[in-house]
Amino acid sequence: MTSLTKLTKEILKHRGVSPKKYFSQNFLVDRGVYASVVEAGDISHNDYVIEIGPGLGFLTSELAKSAGYVASVEIDKEMANGLADMEAITENLSIVHSDILDVDIENLPNFNKDTQYKVIANIPYHLTSKIFKLFLSRNHKPSCMVLLVQKEVAERVVARAGNHTRLSLSVQLYSRPKIIRTVSKSSFYPQPKVDSAILMMKSDESYIKQLKNEDLFWRVVRIAFTSKRKKLVNTLSNGLDVEKAYIIDKLEQCSIDVGSRPQHLSIGQWICFVNLLNNDKKF
After folding, report:
1. Fewer CB within 10 Å, N or C, the chain?
2. How many Å apart are CA 116 and CA 47, to the nearest integer?
3. What is the pLDDT of residues 5-22, one digit of tens each?
């Protein structure tokens, strides 16, 4: 048993609480991983940090030492109450008792429309896609996100052409993701069933600036991935109600093999294809 595991159990016992399965609470008990998260976030006194799920506050205290301000959003009332003492003695920290999915980011303490911010979190696996969507679909996006996520999810997020999914496209259209390191399931208490990974995503608008119609992009991607084993020519001609010859022409203009399936295309090829569709004003 690590010293942090022992301390976690002692704090929980002292407060008379237990990890809650319905909140998917698995507390990180590896100081080395905490250090890796902070390092990946490159936190400085110029940074506003939104932390999701501070739990017992081990990462929170480290973030507060480096960041200009930390807003830690905790859905569990008992956990949020347990951080009251830390909040009281830490001038640059606010504990916000709320579900992050319900929080108006612009109304967080000391936050405004011009705030440059980062998101740091050890998030429940079932919330991963929702967290991605919450922050990456915003006009006011974080400059960087560092998330502890399921290893398999992290690997899907960083996939390249040949293995793309809607998830990888939804992240890579707005950011550049990178796996910092894997994290053993033994680094958590209670121990989950699978390993995790630290996933860093730096905001990057180079792709989105090339795209002429974001709504059309996601409409086409959704249609394409409903039948990812089928060739794009067939799926898109049916889904968009156009002749196959029309789809083939657009694919060839973007140097895309007409036998391709949706996972085969690079993001650049997707953008080229959708921009050509947009130019025709049919959709």
Report:
1. N
2. 7
3. 999 999 999 999 999 988
Which 3 state secondary structure label does DSSP give 274? helix
Side-chain-side CA neighbours of residue 126 (13 Å): 7
Question: Using N-to-C axis directions, what is the helix angle for 214-225 and 267-279, rounded to 10°?
Answer: 120
Architecture of domain 3-204: 3-Layer(aba) Sandwich (3.40)
210, amino acid identity: Q
Show the tokens assigned to 24: 């998917």
225 and 262 Cβ atoms separated by less than 8 Å: yes
* pTM of the complete model: 0.93
pLDDT digits (tens, 9 = 90+) for 129-173: 999 999 998 999 999 999 999 999 999 999 999 999 999 999 999
* Cβ-contact 249, 282 below 8 angstroms: no
Spatial contact of 235 and 223, defined as CB atoms under 8 Å apart? yes
Domain limits, CATH 1.10.8.100, in the chain: 210-279
Residues carrying CATH 3.40.50.150, the chain: 3-204
Rounded Cα–Cα distance for residues 23 and 75 (Å): 8
Cα-based angle 83, 151, 126 (whole degrees, multiple of 5):
60
Secondary structure of the chain: what % helix, strand, coil (to 5)? 45, 20, 35
Task: Give the count of beta carbons closer than 10 Å to the beta carbon of residue 3.
Answer: 9
Using CA atoms, how far residue 210 sits from 101, 204, 213, 217, 269, in Å, is: 29, 12, 9, 12, 11
Sign of the alpha-carbon torsion through 106, 112, 115, 121? negative
- Rounded to a whole number of angstroms, the CA Rg of the chain reads 21
Q: Which of 190, 5, 15 is nearest to 85 (CA)?
A: 15
